[in-house]
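Quick note —
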Amino acid sequence: MFVTHRIFLIGLSSFVIFGALCLTYGYFIEPNRLVVSERKLAVRDWNPAFNGLKIVMIGDVHGGSNFVTEDKLRQVVTKINGQNADLVVMLGDFVSQGREDKPIEQRALKMPVETIANGLSGINAKYGVFAVLGNHDGYHGDDRVASELTRIGYRVLQNEVATIEKDGQSLRILGFRDHLKLKTWQETSADAKQSLSSSGGAGDIIALEHSPDVIRAITGEHLISPDLKLMLAAHTHGGQVWLPIFGRAIVPSAFGQKYAYGHVRENNVDLFVTSGVGMSVLPFRFMVPPEIAVLTIYLE
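Predicted structure written out below.
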């Protein structure tokens, strides 16, 4: 009996110590990391003129969240510039609100948007830096965030199309407004078709949107164009916490863990979701480090 009780106490103590170590790692260590995740992505019917296109993507910066300091923002810029990108895309949620007992739209920012923009300034890419906005940006004010990003030389796309050229071939970049400001799937598809029509031109399309769920609104029966080849998104934070057996802890998606992280092919359109840089809701990351995602695109 004494031996059994002692074994139980040892096991319980070990469990508590292990849990404390995990919490310490999840709060102090992993959020303070910044990894560069490199992938080659084979895309169906991709224009071979753009084979080897290197896209660097970041999302969910959430300036002022745990370990997302001004120094961390400069690290992001340095690491991005070290990739010699053709294209850099920034996928929304630049700001982070405090947790005071007020409606989120009235809460103070953890870091001023001007400071965030200054910290992210100086990114270089052959074809430019393009951004879309996220739901947290909308809580603060889309126009305020967009104006700061524009001030530092980046193009913010809100239901707009930009075009890049290479060897006489065109690649279109369609940036959506944040998912909370979009309408029904049918209306979102119709608006996207209108944006593409208004911009004119032709060429493969890369869609930028904060939430990956929007892929359901622009593919399948709602397909905006047969030229849509790739969608890039963020918002999920990769669940922020990944646990063996249980998987990703919290995924803000109507489709569970399907679009939580990485490469998914949906209705013959490729989607890539980054786990982002910062944090919201919980100040922890576990087995889902902050990342800069680097995609090199090829014809499948």
